[in-house]
Specification:
By secondary structure, this protein is α+β, with helices and mostly antiparallel strands. The protein has three domains: 8-74 and 122-152, Ribosomal Protein S5, domain 2 (2-Layer Sandwich); 78-118, no CATH class; 153-291, Up-down Bundle (Butyryl-CoA Dehydrogenase, subunit A, domain 3), CATH 1.20.140. Helix content is 62%, strand content 13%. The chain is built from nine helices and six strands. It has helices at residues 46-57, 72-75, 82-95, 106-110, 125-197, 206-219, 223-240, 247-267, 271-291; strands at residues 8-15, 20-28, 33-38, 61-70, 78-80, 116-118. It has a four-stranded mixed β-sheet. Strands 5-6 form a two-stranded antiparallel ribbon. The longest helix is centred in the middle third of the chain and has 73 residues, at 125-197. The chain is elongated.
Length: 295
């Protein structure tokens, strides 16, 4: 099971005897499911139904719907605006003798804006209900296509996420190896410092120095952080294989990843361990950028 992206686009058109229409749907990242719907004047009744269609198929993301309807594409019947024609002819009479004129031409009159009007189809309630159903059926197909595109995009992004998790696993193995050698290195370093400190002195009890050394080693112990990072890694791999929206859970895991990586860097006294911690933070940031795209 791959993760589902919140990014996608789909478009489809439909047609009846008197109308044609086009639905466009675009989705991007979002904290929840936020639907914005734009429909032409006179089709506002479809907005609520359109929202239900989207809500039934998508779980998260900012979704923009756009419906355009054209009554002319399939109608093809026109009439002359006779009121406008009479006004133009009357104006011609008024201006006769004032400006040079010639007999009006049919092409000239038809070219006047508003002279040719589209005859709007006459529909009863049943016709409108049928057309609304057809428009919503087209939307169903558009959202199905959008969901399919989100799945396809999710497949591609999942491969990237798995690559980041694999890199995190490699870095954790390096960090565990370095951490295993850290106590001995700290001990040798402290021994050298103690020898220098005690040079020529006998008033510092060795048991007290041993206690302080043990405290320093304990503060530098990163095994708990590494264990938690390994557990977070296992949880992330499990979530990737889980059906349903898991983007929020993965985002929370990334925050936990980052917290442990910060602590690892602050406690690391070994350059190899510190370097692994810094690269871990970099990979975790890249992982979180991808996680933001998932539903």
């Amino acid at each position: 099971m791959a993760l589902v992206s919140m990014t996608g686009f789909a478009r489809a058109q439909g047609r009846s005897e008197t109308y044609s229409w086009v639905w466009e749907a675009k989705s991007v990242n979002g904290k929840a499911l936020d639907i914005r719907c734009r429909v032409p004047s006179g089709f506002d009744r479809l907005e609520m139904a359109a929202r239900k269609v989207v809500g039934a198929k998508l779980g998260r993301g900012n979704v923009n719907l756009l419906l355009t309807v054209d009554a002319q594409a399939t109608q093809g019947k026109y009439r002359i605006n006779r009121d406008l024609l009479e006004q133009i002819l009357a104006l011609r009479e008024d201006l006769s003798g004032t400006v040079a004129d010639g007999p009006p031409t049919l092409e000239g009159l038809l070219g006047v804006r508003g002279m040719v009007e589209v005859i709007e189809p006459e529909e009863d309630g049943a016709d409108i209900a049928t057309r609304d159903t057809q428009i919503l059926e087209t939307l169903e197909g558009v959202i199905d296509a959008l969901a399919a595109m989100r799945v396809e995009e999710g497949l591609r992004l999942t491969q990237t996420v798995v690559g980041h998790l694999d890199r995190i696993e490699t870095l954790l193995e390096q960090a565990q190896t370095a951490a295993a050698a850290q106590p001995e290195a700290i001990y040798l370093h402290l021994q050298t410092m103690i020898d220098e400190l005690l040079a020529g002195r006998t008033d510092l009890p060795e048991d007290r120095l041993a206690q302080e050394a043990a405290l320093i080693v304990n503060r530098a112990d990163v095994r708990e952080e590494l264990d938690r990072l390994v557990a977070h890694l296992a949880s992330a791999r499990t979530l990737i294989g889980t059906a349903g929206p898991v983007g929020r859970k993965l985002d929370f895991l990334c925050q936990e990843f980052n917290r442990e990586a910060n602590t690892l860097c602050s406690k690391a006294s070994d350059m190899v361990l510190h370097g692994a911690g810094l690269e871990l933070k970099s990979v975790i940031d890249q992982l979180r950028e991808q996680i933001q795209n998932f539903e």
